[in-house]
Design goal:
The complex is a heterodimer. Chain A is built from 21 helices and 26 strands. By secondary structure, chain A is of the alpha+beta class. Chain A has a 7-stranded mixed β-sheet with strand order 9-10-7-17-14-15-16, sandwiched between helices. In chain A, strands 12-22-19-18-13 form a 5-stranded mixed β-sheet, sandwiched between helices. In chain A, helix 12 packs across helix 13. By secondary structure, chain B is α+β, with helices and mostly antiparallel strands. A 5-stranded mixed β-sheet of chain B has the order 2-1-5-3-4, with helices on both faces. The chains are: A alpha+beta, B alpha+beta.
């Protein structure tokens, strides 16, 4: 198959004098297991990098320096809108002592870049900025270049310095040689050396600086190419026809119903997948609307009103995260036992632009432009959907609308592939708003029970957490296209759901933040949690979902944190303790303690118990609340203070101020980090105040922006202040999901502080707030 | 045949008169500014300016704007010579994925042209029908305010 390179990649390779394929094939690289950023993917899907991926342990897989000195870096972590491309470019420039704009970064193209599984789960920093992969490949390359320069100039490497791609003798500026001259357009042919010395943060001049994103200018002037803008010669347009109800199947399709419409090329049916291809998108839409499809009745849906009770009663696959085995006994000995149930609805990614992909399937070969978060997984699963060999599928990432997790990106890619295969021409598909919203893989609904025992001094002596959450499908991974709607309609099954009792926890894993921050987390004897409560149990029940589910920014972590941090606040209020002081009393991780203290300081936190003394029970009341988390148990420390105003007559909640403190290890780009903290905080606010998937007895009813309630751009936006704790000596962690994880909890705690009413169900709609106010003691 | 005047150029296109303007702009003229977000006039991603008004091109039939001067995001400025709004968005790094930016800037442009010195509240009000799902609100609203001051000079 002829690899289709984008212009930038092609010109870089042309300058370097070889094709990328040839380049890697002839590298003589020994393929051994190497961590390409597989932490989450391995846990979820097993296995390792895909066949055909440039080997992660080879410098040449990550870096090419042409004879003219131009530097091209290759990454398996893509730009989804969070600035990760910019910071990867900064990283390469820093390690190689180059100006930022001398580095060209190419990411996520199965003909060019290493397989780093999904770009997801706040894993791009851990994957590429610590002691492996892109960062370490650059460090290895730097050492190799210094060695070559030392030989060439006859000067010991420690008496050389590098700047602007030139290595110069420290004592004699006239003795110098450029990277391009040293390599002469050849490969490195080097294994990544995990011991190669990284540039210390104290010497950084590019990394750690607020370098502006190069994609901003094309974005704001309408020059940027989204996947929506990909146009291929002879390209046609497709529209899909989704079932009218959950579980409905195709009985018959009357193709004659659209045969006279202008521009219609073909009606495509594959099992329950139905679509139309036309010359132009407007014609495709007309045809999709008019196509007569007879569907079987839907399967019927559980009542929305009683859904949380329904969820509790379903057969479950259990996951025991920690169990000290003495929780019931200690609760029996406690002076006081408190209980509460927290509820979180299904929420959607609700991407601003509905998902889009362009596929060109010709015979047994396919070239696909996709906004997928995992090009290599799309390659193998699209091959399954098309019934062709994965080797014959070339997937090229093109940015879609911000996804925040598994939106319609993968499913629409299968849509485009199936329709293109049926007509043998390139086909572009963009979903309708309704098709995006009614069938995406929603963020999980959660029911969470919390129970804790306090001693006579008000200390927590035992805590039990139990949750129920429904699941159906997921990311497709390397072999499950049926995990999203199109794959399923076309005849593939989603991951099987089998109830099973919990096994004993085998190690400490708080990837879902199911374990509260206050637990000692003693699995197998050694405490690995961030807290002090030794009598502890955390148990999750996974049950079957009637709707598709998948990761939505801070999946399960946000829901669990809402319950844990709200409940901690309830305990503090019960013993009339200050919420910050009470947290600190039960925490032992120094970095988590540090973010809590720093955020309290920055927010001018007033030390006192909640509710706020002197607040009246009518009119407007103000209050403050806080929440903290070690995201995923090891991936970023964050604490957030929310200040709110509650209109007790209307039930309207207004956030006035958020103060966030983040410790994500070394800060790659402070401005980019602030952008993520701000965006996460406001997205969290929208999710806490309004967002909820709704349905009737047959179908989803939240299908547009009138029925799914997001905050608009213009509203009474709270002030957001971010405090960044830079820790260059620590490992880099993710930062895209920290602030969002804390908002619902901090907001609920602030509402309690303002009013004395506890909100335990998301979203905090005015009706729910008024009901909670009416129920106050 | 439909004649459209876009960013100072005239185009004659063979289109069903009911075709929404957005389809003509993004598919026939291959413009990258206006975008399909919802097709329902609810999110703003498709916004263009016609006769000084920010309109939702996804629900505007081409026939209804035939002959009128249509300005898209591309028509405001270029990478080399950005409009003050575009410049402010770059300076404030006021975007994440960038999909909504068209609707935000075009809506703000039409608003600022009529209200040269708006208050923070007036800007919020003017932008209350536009969505950004990455929630870059703080920076975007700040950039609009700064651009407004620049444009009023």
């Amino acid at each position: 198959m002829k690899p289709v390179l984008n212009c930038d990649a092609r010109s870089a390779l042309h300058r370097a004098g070889f094709s990328r394929r040839t380049f890697l094939k002839t590298s003589g690289a020994l393929i051994v297991t190497f961590n390409a950023g597989w932490k989450n993917a391995e846990a979820q899907f097993g296995g390792g990098p895909s066949a055909g991926s440039p080997p992660a342990n080879q410098v040449d897989s990550w870096l090419a320096i042409a004879a003219d000195g131009s530097v091209t870096a290759y990454s398996g972590k893509e730009e989804l809108g969070q600035g990760i491309a910019t910071v990867q470019q900064q990283l390469v420039a820093e390690e190689l002592s180059l100006p930022f704009d001398r580095v060209k970064l190419i990411y996520c193209d199965t003909a060019l870049t290493p397989d780093q599984a999904y770009t997801s789960g706040s894993q791009s920093h851990p994957a590429n900025f610590n002691r492996n992969n892109l960062a370490q490949a650059c460090a290895t390359a730097r050492e190799a270049l210094f060695k070559l320069a030392s030989e060439r100039l006859g000067i010991p490497a420690d008496q050389l310095s590098a700047a602007n791609g030139v290595i110069t003798a420290k004592s004699n500026a006239s003795k110098k040689v450029s990277y391009g001259e040293l390599l002469g357009g050849k490969k490195f042919t080097l294994t990544v050396n995990t011991a190669a010395k990284r540039k210390p943060a104290s010497e950084w001049t590019v990394l750690g600086k607020p370098i502006p994103r190069p994609d901003l200018a094309p974005l704001v002037t309408g020059r940027f190419e989204f996947v929506h803008n990909v146009r291929l010669p002879g390209m046609l347009h497709g529209k899909v026809v989704r079932p009218p109800a959950v579980g409905a199947t195709v009985m018959s399709v009357d193709e004659s119903s659209v045969k006279d419409l202008p521009g219609v090329v073909k009606v495509v049916v594959k099992k329950n997948f139905v679509g139309v291809v036309a010359q132009k998108p407007w014609q495709a839409l007309q045809a999709a609307n008019k196509l007569k499809v007879t569907w079987s009745p839907g399967a019927g849906l559980p009542s929305h009103a009683d859904f949380y009770e329904h969820v509790r009663k379903q057969p479950a696959r259990d996951n025991l995260m920690v169990d000290s085995k003495d929780v019931e006994q200690k609760l029996g000995e406690a002076t006081t036992v408190l209980k509460a149930t927290y509820l979180h609805p299904y929420q959607m990614h609700g991407s601003m632009g509905s998902s889009c992909a362009v596929a060109d399937v010709q015979g047994d070969r396919a070239t696909i432009y996709s906004p997928t978060q995992g090009v290599w997984y799309q390659k193998t699963t699209a091959a399954m959907v098309l019934g062709i060999k994965p080797d014959n599928v070339h997937v090229i990432f093109r940015r879609g609308s911000g996804c925040y997790g598994l939106n319609g990106a993968d499913t629409v890619t299968y849509d485009a592939a199936l329709l293109s295969q049926a007509v043998g021409k390139p086909v572009r598909v963009q979903l309708s708003r309704k098709d995006e919203m009614a069938w995406e893989n929603y963020g999980n609904a959660f029911v969470m029970d919390e129970r804790a025992g306090l001693d006579a001094q008000g200390n927590i002596i035992a805590w039990d957490h139990e949750s129920w959450s429904p699941t159906l499908g997921n990311r497709p991974g390397p072999r499950t296209p049926g995990n999203v709607i199109t794959g399923y309609l076309a005849g593939f099954e989603p991951d099987a759901f089998a109830p099973r009792p919990a096994a004993e926890p085998r190690g400490y894993n708080n990837g879902s933040n199911g374990i509260p921050s206050y637990f000692a987390g003693a699995v197998g004897g050694t405490p690995r949690g961030t807290g002090t409560v030794k009598s502890e149990r955390a148990l999750a029940h996974i049950v079957a979902s009637p709707f598709w589910t998948g990761p939505l920014r801070s999946p399960a972590r946000l829901q669990n944190t809402f319950a844990h941090e709200g409940f901690l606040d309830e305990l503090a209020a019960h013993v009339k303790a200050d919420p910050v002081a009470y947290r600190l009393r039960h925490l032992r991780d120094p970095r988590l303690i540090a973010v809590v203290k720093e955020v309290a300081k920055a927010a001018n936190w007033e030390t006192r118990p909640s509710p706020r003394p002197g607040n009246r029970k009518t009119g407007t009341a103000i209050g403050r609340g806080m929440a903290c988390v070690l995201y995923e148990g090891d991936n970023g420390y964050s604490a957030l203070v929310a200040e709110v105003e509650v209109d007790q007559d209307t039930g309207k909640v207004s956030a006035k101020r958020f103060v966030v403190c983040n410790d994500v290890g070394p800060v790659s780009n402070p401005n980019g980090l602030r952008n993520q903290i701000e965006g996460g905080a406001l997205q969290g606010l929208s999710r806490a105040l309004g967002e909820e998937v709704t349905w009737d007895d047959q179908k989803v009813t939240s299908i547009d922006w009138r029925t799914y309630h997001t905050l608009p751009l213009g509203f009474d936006v709270p002030k957001i202040e971010a405090v960044l704790l830079d820790r260059p000596e620590e490992e880099a962690t993710g930062a895209g999901e920290t602030s969002i994880t804390l908002v619902a909890a901090a907001l609920g705690n602030a509402i309690f502080d303002a009013t004395g009413a506890r909100l335990r169900q998301i979203p905090f709609t005015p009706e729910r707030v008024k009901a909670a106010l009416a129920a106050r003691a | 045949m439909i004649t459209l005047k876009v960013n100072g150029r005239t185009h004659t296109l063979d289109l069903d008169p009911a075709t929404p303007l957005l389809y003509a702009l993004s598919d026939d003229l291959e413009l990258r500014g206006p975008k399909f977000g919802c097709g329902l006039g609810q999110c703003g991603a498709c916004t263009v300016i016609v006769k000084g008004q920010a309109i939702r091109s996804c629900i505007t039939p081409v026939k209804s704007v035939e002959g009128a001067e249509i300005t898209t995001l591309e028509g405001l400025g270029t990478i080399e010579k950005p409009h003050p709004l575009q410049k402010a968005f770059i300076e404030d790094q006021a975007a994440q994925c960038g999909f909504c930016v068209n609707g935000v800037i075009m809506t703000a442009k039409a608003f600022l042209d009529k209200n040269p010195k708006p208050s923070e509240q007036e800007i919020q009000q003017a932008m209350s029908g536009v969505l950004c799902r990455c929630f870059t609100n703080v920076r975007m609203l700040r950039a609009i305010q700064r651009a407004g001051q620049e444009m009023a000079r």
